[in-house]
Every structure is written in structure tokens, then in C-alpha cells.
Amino acid sequence: MELASRNITNLAPLGQCGAPYMVQDQSGKSQRVRHKSMQFEDQPLHEEDSRKIYVNDPRMTNEKYEFSGNEIRTSKYTIITFLPKNLFIQFHRVAYLYFLAIAALNQLPPLAVFGRTVSLFPLLFVLSVTAVKDGYEDWRRHRSDRNENNREALVLQAGELRLKRWKNIEAGEVVKIFSDETIPCDMVLLGTSDANGLAYIQTMNLDGESNLKTRYARQETASADFEGHSVSGLIRCEQPNRNIYEFTANMEFNGHKFPLTQSNIILRGCQLKNTEWIVGVVVYAGQETKAMLNSAISPSKRSKLESYMNRETFWLSVFLFVMCLAVALGMGLWLIRHKEQLDTLPYYRKRYFTTSKGDDKNFKYYGIPMETFFSFLSSIIVFQIMIPISLYITMELVRLGQSYFMIGDKHMYDSASDSRFQCRSLNINEDLGQIRYIFSDKTGTLTENKMEFRRASVFGKDYGDSDRSVNLFQESSIAGGFIHRRKWKLKSEVTVDSKLMKLLLKESNEEERLVAHNFFLTLAVCNTVVPILYDDMETIDYQGESPDEQALVSAAASYGYTLFERTSGHIVIDVNGEQLRLDVLGLHEFDGVRKRMSVVIRFPDNSVKVLMKGADNSMFSVIAKDIESGDQLFQETLEHLKQYSWQGLRTLVVAARDLTGAELEQWQCWYKDASTSLTERTTKLRQTAALIESNLSLLGATAIEDKLQEGVPETIESLRQAGIKVWVLTGDKQETAISIGLSCKLLTSDMQQIVINGTSEAECRDLLADAKVKYGVNGACANLKFRSDAERSYSWFSCDIKPSKKLQCDISEEQRVNMPLALVIDGNSLVYILEKDLQSELFDLATACKVVICCRVAPLQKAGIVDLIKSRTDDMTLAIGDGANDVSMIQMADVGVGICGQEGRQAVMASDFAMGQFQFLKRLLLVHGHWNYQRVAYLVLYNFYRNAVFVLMLFWYILWTAFSTTSALTDWSSVFYSVIYTSIPTIVVGVLDKDLSHKTLLQYPKLYCAGQRHEAYNMYLFWITMVDTLWQSLVLFYVPIFIYMESTVDIWSLGSLWTIAVVILVNFHLAMDIRRWVVITHAAVWGSIIITYGCMVVLDSIPIFPNYWTIYHLAGSPKYWITIFLIIVVALLPRFLFKVARQVFCPSDILIAREAEVLKQPTPILPKAVKQTST
């Protein structure tokens, strides 16, 4: 996560004049895309809207009963609401409503085709399985809630601390927490075991960050004695909200009124660390705590293939309607034709035949029109499984199995962070095989986010050259005995520049030495880092929310400026063995608008300075004007910054100034008013910071290295070969982003870079238009949204992102040769582009480029870039990041991947998948993504085929029996067909089948393009499947009819034969397409046939069934087995010939690679084949 784009700030202390606070821009103009899941509300807080908390008086606090208790509930159901609520949620699936209507129709006497109980079985089975799963999950939530609510904490009651269950704690009560205990509710700190009111907390349960954070009790309350005394006070705070990084309030206590900010509140779920005890007053409890308000589930995502599946389901519904209409019309015409013979015809009689006269009993006959209508409805019941209800359960089980193997993949285990791959969403596994755009954060995603101080520009001179850099412990001879005087040992080893060290150790007051002194003093002071002293009281380490700050403080310590104590009002620095105590008068946190941080310090001689660091483009605007006029120091520093950026280093500018008494007085007055305000505090504090952040003296610049993660260049190269565009969205400056792009092979030397750095809407418009004209980019070349599948497959088949021949517009031959383009655009330009009507211009240009790098972008701008592609193309997008500023981008993309990095787990918690390193993305997409897509795509088509061939067999039978809507199959055979007879092989193949080995898929990334081209699932394959299904159903029905035409077998015997034959047929069909046979696969495919025979034997042995003993008569005849053999051969012969012809004359890339694997030939044949098929 980049320092330049962070709008989630750290916590730090202030002195007597104020409190720590945060400056945070939540609604900048650059933010176009707004989702509740991406942003916090930033409504102005008015006095009348504030919440009043009376300290130690919960009754007065909640006298209007408007505050919730501290009991939490994460469960969805109760015993009473479970059944209706769960059914309501399940019936959001339209297919379930369809089967409910079918079951209801079958309960009507004229339409009772199946037994009434039997017709309900499939729907009840699916509903029950889902309900049991949901019920078990909710029972676990209830158990967790009960354990949480019944925990106990010490609460101040009548002057004494008494144990009280968490669920009974109320707003206004004073609570005492001990070390390593969990905070039960959101509390404002009143006091701690530390004399200065300091407390350390760990927020792992809240945001996943493991590093310690500091919180402070106000000095006005820290010295108060709460136990055994009457305590009172009033807190006015904002209403409950989800922003865990900001808190606006003020407090009246013992006649003092002072502000409260984020550093004064501890949130529910945090743990107290390295602090003996704390005391706090509850301000938010239960469901109103920030932790509970943030417990909303991430936006649900739906698989793209599943959305395509609805299109095919519609066509199946059309087929179903046509078949039912044909049966109904046939029935009507048949009744009209035989109107006078209805009493005597064998297929339809209006009257029973009886032996006694006068006892004639009529059938329920409703007339020809109604009989025709009833025939239509009965046909719907008979053909109901044309829409496969079992497919939904099958897909969930298959995705679950796929996730199990992805999680267990040892190649995606990160030993450094001890993190395994995580599947946090089971709905979009197959989308991993269709990605065309990847949007990646840089810091912590492509890089390690482990910062190392490398270079420094001090007083216009460059330090940190490797020739002069030596280890600190080799420095004694150079530093003149400095090591002997040095008290502190850094936990992490740092290299220093010998020349710079000599400068700092000079006993002189020359300007260069004073600038160097102030430079490192600023690095040691201007931060929110917490020093951690070890037991030996010599070794020191630093904890901070920003790795950049930790690196800078460690660098200052290595040069002799060691921060070793921080309290709520002062900081103590060890300067080359001498302690320097500095009073902290105020600290303006880093935020995404100012992009700088400043601290107001009072020195022992009562002089006051402003020390500041920040991004170069922000800092240069507040540097003294005489420097900007051409001062050599400014020019040399600027030149060094450019050099650092081109080396891929992260840069910051350091500056300082003295404050006069009048300036200090004015600032303190403004600050006091701003920090205690309950209305627009953030804006007022930003305006207050502007008073002192001006006319600064330039001290120098820092350069920090953030190394690339292992395997990043190779991963990006493989993804590019796979036809995936990788866009980098970073908060770093442009030069740094470009340098990292070159080092990770995202940018190549032959690419033409298009840079868009606009400062106005008109300038951005001109830059975009000029680039499009210069490089021959036309809107038609880039906009792929409305192109047909065939056209798109043709132009993208090679996976090189170039316009097709049809859409190449007016591009010269020279430009075509030099086509690779790279777009570099900054966040300031995106402010004008994303909010104005320039989005289409940016889209056209960006999609014509192979690489896009967006630098200096805010979090919601990242989401806006993702939405730019999602809203204008059908391409699948994936966003990957590691920090909180990547959450909006991750949630916006079709697939979100979180990195378990150095900046907490916010990105992981908002993601669909999570892993330890960026390099695992290669295996996730090229291997598991490919496998999952191929499996699920085949699974859907096979389920359509499996059910359609069964329904069409019934359709031919109904036509054969004068449209009578009768069935030769028993009710249980129809139900068991999808649920038992054929379901297990489908699931096993969907989980275990592999068309290619992982080695081949990794060796030839272009094989991934099959998913992008939708080769495994498209309309063409659907219609081919339906034609094949039609043929197989005709063979399945008519072969037994012709063979047994002159025999004496009854219709139930034929029904038994058809049941066995269709199960064997669909399993042989499946066996023809299985690419990887293992023991489980054999057991599932052939075992399902055995199970079918077993069930048939059982059903045919029950005397009350009409098919009693039929299987025993049929199985003893050779004709029975010959019939089944002929059905299998004749039905599957066209499919077999089609597969052979395709393999020989028109092989796909996957078929070529598979043939090479099977024959164990060297696979140089594959790239050649890919190239030939791509042109």
C-alpha cells in the first residue's frame, strides 16, 4: 500500500495544547464510483445530532432507551424464523419456483402424472440439503454469539469494580480491562497503568494487522482515581458509523473541555498488549460498535458462466414449451378425430367396462378444450427435468471439491508468512479461467513492502552510494569511537554512508552540518512509530502502521538519532549518546489530500520548529519561494529525486521551519477550536495545518527500496503470454512506477510510452485526442462490448492484444510494426477524466495499449478504473492487492484476490481468494483457473444433455401412445435418474478431471486463452450438444421398439429397458470425454451403472409396483443385452466420428498439447500449432 495514496492514517500523540487526530479525505472529487462497501459516510456532525454519554451514569445516558445493549448477534435465524426465512431465501432461485409450480400442478387430480409424494421428492431433497447446511452454519454462529456474550469484564458499580457479563454492559459504564484481554465494546480511554496514559493494542481481530498500535488517555483524565470515587463527565460524540479509522468527539471533565480523536478510543475486538490495565467509558455497545457495523458481508459475486447458463436455460424452456404444445395440440386433434370412438378405443375411454348393467362408471371427462389444456399441463410435469434442478446442487458440490484441492496445493503455500491459499468465495471458481484484465497494486503486491533505507539527498549532496556504504558495526574506525558511545542496538541491521556519518559527527555549526542534523531529527520525530525496548534495555525495535516510517526511523537511529521514548506529550531522542527531550505541541497526520505530515516541536531552549516530510509534488508547493526561483539546493535535490525514482526507489522530501511566537499562538488558537469542533473537524484541521505548512526550508530527500517479490517478472511474462493485460494502479510517483514496471518486465524497451499528465479537463482531452491520432487508435478498435463471439474469437485467438483486420482503422505499416503501447497516467488526470465525459476516450486509448500504469491514484479511483473496463466490455477482470486502499478495487472486480502482506488483512477479508505472494497468481489462473473452467463448462453442458436425452425419450413415447402423457417408467425411476443414477459420476469428473497436466499448462501459458475464447462453453457447443441429444434420444427410443415390435413384452418391461439403457448411455457418453482416469473415476462411472441395476432389482421386486419382476424376465434374454449394445453403439457413433475428425483435421491447442502429453513427444510442436491456428 503506497504512502502517497494512504487515506487511512496512523495514530500519534499531541501535547497539552491538543489531542492526536486524523486528517482523512473521504469524498474527494476524484472519487466517481461510490458503493457502501467502499466508503464511509462523511456527513457533517451537528451538535444536535451528537450522542451524549454521561460517564459512569448509564441510566441517564440511555434515559430515552435509544441505545442498544452490548449483546451481539451474527446469526441469521431463530427457531421461529428459520423455516420461513430460509425458504424465502432459497426461492430467490427462479428454478426452485419452477419446480414448486410443477409439484403443485401434480397435486391436482386431472394432472397427477406421478405419485403426489414422488413429485415432491426432488424439490424437497434440494431444499432439505440446503436448509441443513444453512442451519448448521447458523447454529455455529449462535454458539459463537453465546460464548461471546457470556464473557465477563470488570465494571465500575457503586464505586466498586464488579464482574459483569458482556451482554449486560451499557453505554456510559466505566470498564477496566487487563493485559491480553479483549475489549468488550468501543471505549474512550480514561486511564492506563502507564503514568503518561499510554496503552498498546493489537487490532488483529478488527483489521487483521498484527503490529501494535498506541492509544492514549487524555492527561486530564489519566491522573484521576476511578475506583472507590464518584466519577462524572460528559462526552459528546458522533453517531455510530463504520469508519474504524476516525472518531470525532469532545469531553467535559472536571471543568475542562478537550477534544477526543481516534487515538483516544479502543474498539471492540482489540486486545490489550504490553499494558497492565486500562480504564475506559463505553460510548458504543453491541450492534452499534464499529466492529459490528463493519461485519457486513462483501458484495456477492456471480459466476459469468452461470449467467450464460441462464441463456441456455431459456432455450431449454422454449424447447419444453414447444414439446408441451405439440403434445397438447396432438391430443386435441386426436380427440377430435376419434370423438365418436372415445368409449371403445384402447388408449382413451370415457366409460369403464363393467359386467353388470346399469353400473357403468364414467371417467372424469372435461371436454376436448379442457382435456387439451390438461394435456399441456401434464406434459410440463412429465418433461419437468428438462430444466435440471440437480445442476445447482451439483455445481456447489463440484466447486467445493475444487476449492479443497486449491487450498491443499502445496505450490501455493507461502512459508514466509505461513499462509495457505484461501477460497473465501465458492461461487466463481470457473471465472479464474477466463480473466483478461488484471489490476494490481504495486507496494506489497508486486513488491515485498519491506522497506530499506538506501539513499539520501542532504543539502544538495547524494549519500548512500554502495561504494561508501558499510555496515554500522564496521564504522568505529571511521566514526571516531562513535560505536563506543552508542547505547542502543537496532534489532535490524542497517548500512550507513561513511561520508554522511563523518559530517554528522563534526563538532561544527556550519550550515551543511546543521541541515544534516535537522534532516535526521525530522526522520526520528515526524512519525507515529512506537519504540519497543527489549529486556536488556539496549536492543530496540520499532512498531508502526507504515513500513516506510519504520524504515526512516531505523535509518535515523543508525545515524545516531535514536527514538527510544514516546509519551502523550513528549518524545525523547538519543542524539549520539546525548538525550534530547522534545515537547510535541501538535502533529498533523499524513492524508490523501495534503500528502504530507508535519509535527510542531518545542526544543529545550523554548524554540519551536515545524518538521515535515511528504510527497515531492506536495512538498514543493510549500517550500520557500526563494528556493523555487532557481536555488542550486532545490535543483540538485530535484535531480537526485529523479535519479532515485528511475532506480525504483520510493522518495520523500524533508523540510523544516522555525515558528515565531505570534505564529505559534495563532496556530494553537485555531487548533484548539478545530480539534474540539463536532462539525467538519477534518476540514478545519486541514485549514489549521495550512497555517504552519508554508515557507519551509528544504533539508533534503529520502529514498527507500521496496524490493520486488520473488518470481514477479516471470509471473507477469507468463500472464502476458496467456493473453492477460496487467494494469498497475499505484499511489507512488510516476518515475518510481515506471522503474518498477521495467524491473518486473511489465514495461519493455520496445514499448512506446504514452504519458497523460493533465492539469485541467481541456488539457486531458487534448492529450488523449493527440495520443489516439498519433498512434492510430480508434474507438472501434478498442470497444469490444458489442462484437459477436465469432468475430471476437477470430481477432483475439492469438491472444496478442491487437485490433483485428476488420477494425485496424487507418494505421500505417510503420505504426503497426511499433504497435506495443504503454499508457502512463496520473491520479490528477483521472480526476478530470473519470468525472467528465472523457471516460470513453480513456477507454479507447487504454484498451489499445498492452500495459497501463496509473500512478498517484486514490483508492476509489482504483475502483473507477476497474469499473471503466467492466462497464464497457464483457471481459473478466481480476484485482489483486494487499492493503485497505485496495478493498474498493477488489470488491469492484469480477474476481478479487488479497495478498497476506505487511499491511494487515483488510484486502484479504474483502477478497474472493487470498494467497501469500503475487507469483502464486500464475498457478492460480493458468492451472487451477483452466481446470475449473473446463470442468464446470463441461459439467453444465453434460447436465443439459443428460436431462434432455431422458426427456426426449419420454416425448417420443408420448407421441407413440397417441399423446396420452403416460409414462412407461415408474415414478421412482424418473426421480432417481438425476438424483442417484447419474449424479455421482458428474460430481467426480467435475472435481478430478484434468485435460492437461499442470506442467504443460505452466510451460505453455497460451493454452489459457481457451477460456478467454469460451471454447469449452458457448452457444455453438450448446446447439451441437442438443443435436447430438436429439439423435441419441431417437436411437434410445426406437431401437427397443423395433427389436421388440413382434414380441409379447409389456410396456413396463420396455420402461425397465429404457431406464437401464439411458443410464448406460449417458455414462458411456461421459466416459468418452473423461481425460484423466483414476480409481475414483472408474468407481463412480461404472459403479453408477451397477447401482442402477441394484435399484431396478429392488424396485422390480416390490409386488405393488406395476413393473414387478420385469427385470428378471428381460435380463435372461440375449435380445435384451443385444438391444443395449446396439443403443450404445448407434447412439454414440456420430459423436465418436465427430471427435475423431476434429482431432485429425481441426485440432485445438488443447488437443495438440494433450496428444503431445499422451505420446510423450517433445512439445515444440505446440507453439507452432498455436501460431498457425492464431493467424
UniProtKB/TrEMBL annotation:
The active site is at residue 441. It catalyses: ATP + H2O + phospholipidSide 1 = ADP + phosphate + phospholipidSide 2. GO terms for molecular function: ATP binding; ATP hydrolysis activity; ATPase-coupled intramembrane lipid transporter activity; magnesium ion binding. It holds the Pfam family Cation_ATPase. Residues 908-1148 form the P-type ATPase C-terminal domain. One of its GO terms (biological process) is phospholipid translocation. It comes from the Eukaryota. One of its GO terms (cellular component) is plasma membrane. ATP binds at residues 441-443, 549, 590, 613, 650, 730-732, 856, 862, 885-886. The chain crosses the membrane at residues 94-112, 118-136, 314-336, 373-393, 944-963, 975-992, 1020-1045, 1051-1070, 1077-1099, 1119-1138. It is an enzyme of class 7 (translocase). It is a multi-pass membrane protein. Mg(2+) binds at residues 441, 443, 882, 886. CDD domains: P-type_ATPase_APLT_Dnf-like. Its cofactor is Mg(2+). Signal peptide: none annotated. Belongs to the cation transport ATPase (P-type) (TC 3.A.3) family. Type IV subfamily. This is Phospholipid-transporting ATPase. It comes from Trapa incisa. The lineage of its organism: Eukaryota, Viridiplantae, Streptophyta, Embryophyta, Tracheophyta.
